[in-house]
Amino acid sequence: MSAESAVTLTTPKELERVPLVSNQRPLSWISDKVSLICETATPLWWWLMFLPCSAIALVGLLCIGYQISNGVGVWGENHPAGWAWDITNFVFWIGIGHAGTLISAILFLTRQKWRTSINRAAEAMTIFAVICAGIFPGIHVGRVWMAWFLAPIPNANGIWPNFRSPLLWDVFAVSTYFTVSLLFWYTGLIPDLATLRDRAKSRVSKYLYGIFAIGWRGSNRQWRHYEMAYLVLAGLSTPLVLSVHSVVSFDFATSILPGWHTTIFPPYFVAGAIFGGFAMVLTILLPSRLLYPQLDDMITRQHVDKMAKIILLTGSIVGYAYLMELFMAYYSANQYELFTFLRARIGIDNDGWYAWAYYCMMFCNVISPQIFWSKKMRSNYWVVFAVCMFVNVGMWFERFVIIVTSLAQDFLPSSWGHYSPSWVEIWTFIGTFGIFLSLFLLFMRFLPMICMFEVKLVTPAADPHHQATDKEAKH
Amino acid sequence: MADYRKVYGLGAEFASPADLMHAAEKVRDAGLTKWDVHTPFPVHGMDKAMGLGKSWLSAPAFIGGVTGLLTAVLLTCIPSFGIYPMIVHGKPYDWRTLPAFFPIVFELTVLFSAFATVISILVMNQLPKWYHPVFNWERFTRVTDDGFFIVIEARDPKFSESKTREMLEAIGGRHVTLIHD
After folding, report:
1. Residues of chain B with pLDDT > 70: what percent?
2. Least CB–CB distance from A218: residue in B18, B39, B113
3. SS3 at position B129
4. Cα(A169)–Cα(A306) distance, rounded to whole angstroms?
5. B-chain residues near A199 (CB < 8 A)
6. What is the pLDDT of residue A347?
7. ipTM score for this prediction
8. pLDDT tens for residues B34-64?
9. Could you tell me if A417 lies within 8 Å of chain B, comparing CB atoms?
10. Cα atoms found within 13 Å of the Cα of residue A149, Cβ hemisphere only
11. Contact B125, A224 (CB under 8 A)
């Protein structure tokens, strides 16, 4: 008897998994809702958002043009702070990209099926963020037309890149990251572009989607290789994403400046990148969810909840890293290290040049995400959005604090110098937000922002054993 | 119109992934070779049902990775230790500085491997291929939405228009249609 009752034991309701697509939607519902975004007329709000964003992007591009034609002197950087907003913005944007690759690769390898409805948008965000990031090191070299010297090309000047320099590692890491992310994103898009091709009514859209769908016909002989390719690309992207921000942190960690010369930097930067990236994913997905209520059943409350938990986890890792840096400064008994942390950053006996930025960073990155311990707060979209905005600001300040406080006041008081940005720098940075949001709006308008075939795959209807068991039960 | 065009094969639609999988098992057991299953998403277990093995795409990915690794090792070591030693800040520049090349070696390994993967998925799937006879079948547009299809090609030695049609209907195929080239 006891064995029989054990067999018939049913799962208690509270232990059942919440379905990834709510309301038991059929397969065609998924393709309908996602494709209709690209097929219906452009909504008014889209223009109301796109026009200002592209205007801001244009201002940013004009500032870049102004800087290139006049030289880096139009920025506020000067000795001793030769790196400031430019590298801050670079690290900020490249970090944001990391969440997309984490969702598409690491969560794929760890079989986190909830990633399916957010991975497309997050990967797009990665690509656009890396584009914005690439602008800054590109233009801060000063003579942009000399940037090709970074490539290992034999040339008549006898100049060869120094492969032992972290700055050159960065060139390789960021360009590889961008290329692989783009390949991964496009590979994932092919079956969904085929859906848009097959649904297209007008000749032009059928032709354009058709070209990019490269004749995909969903054959199992194709899916077999496709799935393996996806697995291989996920396997390649996983160490890649961990390496990129590690390499970015080497730019600092391999130098001898107090505040930069620490071994904690690679893991600390990677955790911070994922932290800031997830905040940006939510910053753009929460409004998209509001603007496209039909996606509610795919980007559900549990997605927001899980991302909020990742923000809490990575935010706490970042908080640990901040405190460990402070402890190591004390424990090292190195007077320069102590000076950087206690005076330049915390602001004890130092007029507090940049102490306000340090406290801003601490509050935004360490304290504000702690509200996510509460389930109630994680399920309140306004709270989640507000925390994400704090994290966006905080992660920018983190890079600002690291770069500027260490440079402005290093070993010799006689060579200290205050740094403040010029209007060109400020508008270039604002301009990259315009570029980022314009690209994202274009993506939302013309490409399926949810990976349809993967969402279909996680519905019960897609499981080949699902209906078989139903039938067996009937017999 | 359609009569004098070459016959590509027979297509049948199935109601669900489960039905499709059982049907595929039967087609496999009937000994057919030139046939394929078309689905809106990869159906797990279908490779076995079709009698296909594991994809060997990981092999070109590995070869690509090894190529990238060797390229990067040669790119960094040959100039640095041989033809173009670069002395910066008076630091050493011999083979003991090899760890400084690890990031670039790693990145190029990943880059070459990713390119090899994407190029081989195109080659192995024979893509891009903008024209294919199955697109002539009107119902086939549902393959990217919620349609599940089996297409048996006429070039299969066991193909017979009437017998294959009977078989497809017997295993639960609906809308069995002759597809022309």
Report:
1. 98
2. B39
3. coil
4. 34
5. 141, 144-145
6. 85
7. 0.93
8. 999 999 999 988 888 898 888 899 999 999 9
9. no
10. 15
11. no
